[in-house]
């Protein structure tokens, strides 16, 4: 439970506590909260969870069809290189602020502390809801994406098979329930699960790299074709086609800030949280090269991939390149397992975000969602809420698959906006707060990173509002912007009905 921002005197910089023993209650008290979760994570398990959330083969492979429409190999390979610098600028910008304010509340808490007193309450409420929506919908995209991959994998043996919407929904529900049970009853084992996931992911990428390179049943391309083939004919976007091809790489790195929600479960968070955020991008990028280059070198004809069952390119590519359904299934099994790990890790992070926002009385029935189970040591009701919201949103797919797919884009858009607000505030206030952080960049480098991050975030929000190919109809239109506005309208209604009187923002503090 939060201490009232009206009942406490914020800690000044002169009283900033050492976080060498970050599990001491007074450290979190300096941020306005009491310790309720167990600090059972280290730098490496936090980094491994970040890698699990990104789920490289799923993050890049799940939406790979967008890169096919986006021109093929050039967009995949060059896009991967470009995203390294863009995503790194976002990561280090977030890392600095997370070092100053290492709490599970994340971006909306940061916005409150950095903004001016006249508008910080409303601003933190808005950013909190954007952050919450981003967490819910990006988690939804992972879980439903896993269900869709399972469906497309079945098509390796039965090309004409396509699960009915209700069947896909049941697969989706089963995934949600598995994640809920694991996250609820196996919390003390989750750091080990994230470690296993990191090892499994590395091994899987190695196996996929070797298998595709050696088998190459559909042929191997020349080096120039592998890295430079660019076909603008499929998307209808003309010169803008290349940017459509950035979508898979951008999606892969979109959730790098979610790891900040674990700040109250790691020792020495002022150092380990920012390091985990900052390191996740180059580590992911390096291993990603061994995933994207073999795919580029053995990619079947782009036009054929656009006809892949279930609009899922990866199972089709694996099956075609391996030459047999069994070979494709073997590689897809590795990816499906990684995605299940991702489901667990991202659900944990989303539940902590939900719990933290409820702790500050910002959502309906906050007292329920902010409870931590004494026996299990986890916010069970917040986990349940994350699961129930996804189940309800999943019903939309029964009526309109195009409306449902908008949630994938909404997840990315909302997360990026929630990142951008505190970064912009920090830059506007001349980076005064982050200058006192234990983990920080050189002022000039930090300013440059902030500017690049804000430019990329602005472009990314627009990019994820666009349909993959032109022309569009009611089934291929991207409704992400409509869905995001709808969510914000609901939040606005709640604000005027209740929160404008009850919500005071998180506790005021000068950080650590």
Keywords summarizing the entry:
22 helices, 512 residues, mainly alpha
How would you summarize this macromolecular structure in one to three sentences?
By secondary structure, the protein is mostly helical. It has 22 helices and no strands.
Principal-axis shape: globular
Indicate the proportion of strand residues.
under 5%
- Report the uncertain regions: 1-16
Residues in helices, as a percent range:
55-70%
What value does the Rg take, in angstroms? Answer: 22 Å
What is the chain-wise order of helices and strands? HHHHHHHHHHHHHHHHHHHHHH
- The strand count comes to 0
What is the tally of helical segments? 22
* Helix and strand composition category: mainly alpha
Ends apart, CA distance between termini: 19 Å
Major sheet details: none
Question: Mean pLDDT across all residues, rounded?
Answer: 92
């Amino acid at each position: 439970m939060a201490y009232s921002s009206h009942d406490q005197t914020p800690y000044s910089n002169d009283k900033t506590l050492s976080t060498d023993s970050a599990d001491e209650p007074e450290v979190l008290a300096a941020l306005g909260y009491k310790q309720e979760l167990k600090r059972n994570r280290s730098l490496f398990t936090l980094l491994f969870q970040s890698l699990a959330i990104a789920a490289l083969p799923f993050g890049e492979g799940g939406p790979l069809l967008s890169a096919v429409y986006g021109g093929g190999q050039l967009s995949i390979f060059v896009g991967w290189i470009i995203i390294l610098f863009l995503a790194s600028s976002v990561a280090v910008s977030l890392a600095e602020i997370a070092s100053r304010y290492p709490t599970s509340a994340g971006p909306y808490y940061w916005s409150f502390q950095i903004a001016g007193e006249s508008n910080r309450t409303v601003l933190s409420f808005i950013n909190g809801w954007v952050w919450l929506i981003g967490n819910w919908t990006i988690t939804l995209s992972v879980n439903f994406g896993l269900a869709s991959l399972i469906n497309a994998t079945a098509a390796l043996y039965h090309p004409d098979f396509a699960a009915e919407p209700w069947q896909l929904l049941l697969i989706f529900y089963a995934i949600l329930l598995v994640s809920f049970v694991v996250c609820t009853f196996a919390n003390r084992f989750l750091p080990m699960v994230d470690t296993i996931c990191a090892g499994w992911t590395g091994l899987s990428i190695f196996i996929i790299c070797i298998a595709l390179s050696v088998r190459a049943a559909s042929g191997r391309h020349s080096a120039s074709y592998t890295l430079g083939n660019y076909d603008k004919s499929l998307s209808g976007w003309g010169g803008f086609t290349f940017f459509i091809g950035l979508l898979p790489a951008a999606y892969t790195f979109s959730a790098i800030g979610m790891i900040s929600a674990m700040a109250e479960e790691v020792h020495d968070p002022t150092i380990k949280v920012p390091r985990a955020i900052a390191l996740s991008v180059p580590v992911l990028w390096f291993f990603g090269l061994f995933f994207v280059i073999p795919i580029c070198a053995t990619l079947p004809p782009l036009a054929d991939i656009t006809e892949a069952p279930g609009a899922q390119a990866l199972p089709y590519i694996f099956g075609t390149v391996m030459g047999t359904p069994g070979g494709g299934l073997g590689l897809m099994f590795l990816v499906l397992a990684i995605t299940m790990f991702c489901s667990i890790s991202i659900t944990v992070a989303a539940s902590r975000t939900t719990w933290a926002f409820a702790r500050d009385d910002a959502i309906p029935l906050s007292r329920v969602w902010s409870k931590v189970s004494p026996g299990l040591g986890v916010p069970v009701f917040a986990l349940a809420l994350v699961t129930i919201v996804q189940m309800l949103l999943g019903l939309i797919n029964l009526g309109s698959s195009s409306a449902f797919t908008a949630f994938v884009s909404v997840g990315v858009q909302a997360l990026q906006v929630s990142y951008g607000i505190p970064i912009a505030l920090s830059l506007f206030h001349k980076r005064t707060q982050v200058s006192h952080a234990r983990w920080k960049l050189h002022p000039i480098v930090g300013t440059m990173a902030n500017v690049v991050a804000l430019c990329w975030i602005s472009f990314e929000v627009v990019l994820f509002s666009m349909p993959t190919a032109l022309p569009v109809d009611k089934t291929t239109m991207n409704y992400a912007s409509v869905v995001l506005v709808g969510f914000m309208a609901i939040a606005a209604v709640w604000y005027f009905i209740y929160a404008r009187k009850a919500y005071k923002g998180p506790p005021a503090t000068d950080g650590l």
